[in-house]
Amino acid sequence: MKPVFLLFALLWALVIPASAQTTINAGRAIEIRIQGVPTEEMTRINNTYTVSEQGYIRMPFIGNVKASGLSAHALASSIEARYRADKIYTNPTIQVIKSSDETLEEYIVTVGGQVRRPGPVKYIRGLTIYNAVQAGGGATEFGSMYRVKLIRNGRLRELDLTRTQNKGILVEPNDTIEVPQKNLWGR
Questions:
Q1: Nearest-10 Cα torsion for 143, 145, 151, 155
Q2: Class in CATH terms, 108-179
Q3: Sign of the C-alpha dihedral computed for residues 154, 158, 162 and 164 taken in this order
């Protein structure tokens, strides 16, 4: 009887972890830790990353890495392989920890310029640039919705938010949005 019970317990221990391993979804926050690299390099990589709506995270030195649809273990293996293939680290060990929804909601988008309430706006999944401006109180009477600036990862993009197709552009955590002052032509 004892061997049957041990066999059953062993099978149960193997089935539970396999079924509990879930995939990473877009819009979620994940925590990444690295070992096997110099200490000063660990501080660059050990961080919380947000999976973009396209399903990627942006890692130091290697850029975008596909995360959506992968398990935490598969993502860790993928990141390790990229660091090795690009000859950045010879023996990295990556640990991926999925964070809860509450962690993600702590991210912000900064809205400034000619808006009624400039400052941080809480990021939530699906937040559009137009909604972020409205969360900042909307443009003042001096603000131009024709030349709204979106700054993401150091890149500037100017958008006309009077056009319907631009209102639905999704923002990402840590984006900066600036509503400029109207020019002489009221734009």
A1: -120
A2: alpha beta
A3: negative
Query: Which long-range contacts link 45-49 to residues 24+ away (Cβ below 8 Å)?
Result: 48/99, 48/103
Architecture of domain 23-101: 2-Layer Sandwich (3.30)
Q: In a 10 Å sphere around its CB, with 0-12 CB exposed, 13-18 middle and 19+ buried, how is residue 173 labelled? A: buried
Q: What is the pLDDT of residues 119-140, one digit of tens each?
A: 888 888 789 999 999 999 999 9
The helix or strand, by DSSP H or E, that contains position 32, with its residue range, turns out to be: strand 29-35
Total-model pTM? 0.47
User: Residue 69, Cα to own-chain centre: how many angstroms?
Assistant: 15
Given this model, what pLDDT does residue 42 score? 86
Tokens of 44: 């660059």
pLDDT at residue 162, as a whole number: 95
Contact present, 125 and 119 (Cβ < 8 Å) = no
Residue 33 and residue 95 in contact, taking contact as beta carbons nearer than 8 Å: yes
Q: Where are the CATH 3.30.1950.10 domain residues in the chain?
A: 23-101
Burial class of 103 by CB neighbour count within 10 A (0 to 12, 13 to 18, 19+): middle
**Numbers of helices and strands, H then E, in the chain:** 6, 10
